[in-house]
Amino acid sequence: xxxxxxxxxxxxxxxxxxxxxxxxxxxxxxxxxxxxxxxxxxxxxxxxxxxxxxxxxxxxxxxxxxxxxxxxxxxxxxxxxxxxxxxxxxxxxxxxxxxxxxxxxxxxxxxxxxxxxxxxxxxxxxxxxxxxxxxxxxxxxxxxxxxxxxxxxxxxxxxxxxxxxxxxxxxxxxxxxxxxxxxxxxxxxxxxxxxxxxxxxxxxxxxxxxxxxxxxxxxxxxxxxxxxxxxxxxxxxxxxxxxxxxxxxxxxxxxxxxxxxxxxxxxxxxxxxxxxxxxxxxxxxxxxxxxxxxxxxxxxxxxxxxxxxxxxxxxxxxxxxxxxxxxxxxxxxxxxxxxxxxxxxxxxxxxxxxxxxxxxxx
Length: 362
Fold this sequence. Notes:
The chain is 54% helix and 17% strand. It starts with a helix and ends with a helix. It has two domains: 2-39 and 234-359, no CATH class; 57-214, no CATH class. It is built from 13 helices and twelve strands. Strands 1, 3, 4, 5, 6, 7, 8, 9, 11 and 12 form a ten-stranded mixed β-sheet that branches.
């Protein structure tokens, strides 16, 4: 009976299924995009290979929001500390021209000492003040070729090489050049420190806290755990808002669909009640129908999510959308709960129908 009821109005059923699918897809894509970007960014920072990073006081764990308030001479003090093998100052600059990019201004020698150097797909390391290195994902996305010209910060850079992704940023330029372009002469946004041995990390951090008591000192091995939506003001609120919007979509569509169903089947409900069907039976039948619609919508939503991810990645290769089994289950639960809430009032209304009035309904 439930299946026949669903097939009785195929267009309305299809709209309801698609609405639940959009609800599920919206949750998975929004959460997958934010968590994927955070995870991928954290892995690239960890891929630098440093043991510690030093940031100015109250600096965000999201490096793109860091400025350049630290004198670059701080690096000399860090290099003098016991158990410190190498120190790499980095100047960060945010650019929105031609996309959203975080540029690393680096000293090639010190950055190589900390990170172990780049893996080159094409070209060579920076040799001049106007050279730029582009990672392979960004090169694919921006259609960059070695020895070509790359316009950045209203400055023409020469593409010296294309490197393997995973070393922090996707674009690297000489730190002196970026200092001049951003008006941050002799400044750095962050210092990456490599210890002589990993077990010396805590000793170096203790020394750093004595010299730089108010600065942010973080071990990179824990960086991945720090990159969460709650660490960025407003991001968690945005995610919750998108989930609430998705629930509202599913709730309203299911509510309207089931309410219309109850109105259309008033006589049928009267027949069932006249044959002895209880209120619980009527409610169970309508909620079972809703659950089946939600189940079909969940399957459609998962398929839509993977299709949307494939489309996004084909257009923007540098994006990372992480769809996990955990969030698939959460999205499914959200869809079912929203659908059942939407069907609750129509089901309750149907259970209270007077069989005599229902049979006389035209």
